[in-house]
Specification:
Strand order of the largest sheet: 1-2-3-4-7-8-9-10
Structural class: alpha/beta
CATH class: Alpha Beta
Largest sheet: 8 strands, parallel, barrel
Distance between the termini: 8 Å
Strand content: 15-25%
Shape: globular
Order of helices and strands: EHEHEHEHEEEHEHEHEH
Mean pLDDT: 96
Radius of gyration: 18 Å
CATH superfamily: Luciferase-like domain
Helix content: 25-40%
Amino acid sequence: MRYAIDLPNMGPFGDPRLLVDLARDAEQAGWDGLFVWDHLGGREWNLPMVDPWIALAAIAAHTSRIRLGTMVTPLPRRRPWKVARETVTLDHLSGGRLILGVGLGSGRASEWADLGEETDFKRRGAMLDEALAILAGLWSAQPFSFRGEHYTVERAHFLPGPFQQPRIPIWVAGYWPNKAPFRRGARWDGMFPLFPDAEADALLEMFREAVAFLRAQRGGNPAPFDILHRGVTPGDDPARAAELVAPYAAAGATWWAEAIHPQRFGVGWEGAWPLDALRERIRQGPPRL
């Protein structure tokens, strides 16, 4: 099991300098990774926000060990060839530490309809699949062409290829029990299962069901495959933290993402964030089994 911190790109965390400071804290405290949200904002989240890619570039330049990435980037509202160039650049800058989390994106009107983006989830799913095929093709560092319903690429040849080979790991996010994102995730390198709000026992059972479905979809594929679970553990009670993480590790999780969000302390998004407490949880380090 590896451990990451999960940071929104909004509110006080909408400051790239603060995110760099938190990333250095995380690396010094022994965390294995840092994942940043990819939201644009608008009328539904009227908060300062930072561009995750610029923030991650700064983080990559000020850390040396932790894995980093977006969790998750709504790929259907981004040009896949631009993402291909950005991700390869960041992969080289970080020395091969990038993980790309992707998904359909939320249903928030402010990030889709208000900006003229596609709102139909089925069409977004098709756009996501095409975009992933294009990323893999452009990352190959070989001449590449593609013609789909939503995107066209003619004789593109992107150099250099990623630092990581055979490719930058792609993790797909999706809400269980919707099967389509899990079938998609099984074809790539990892999965970030999301669930509706539920009590602890029900949440763990849903996680087990999702993992079983993923394993069936992969059909014995021996390639490495990561499964991320996001949760909350107390930094001042190692035994309790291990007790919370252990069932997910046993059920197949390979990463635990610690939610460094104001809501873990009962504070709303637009309230006064308890920055000292959030930073202290990072500095306390990850849970250990």
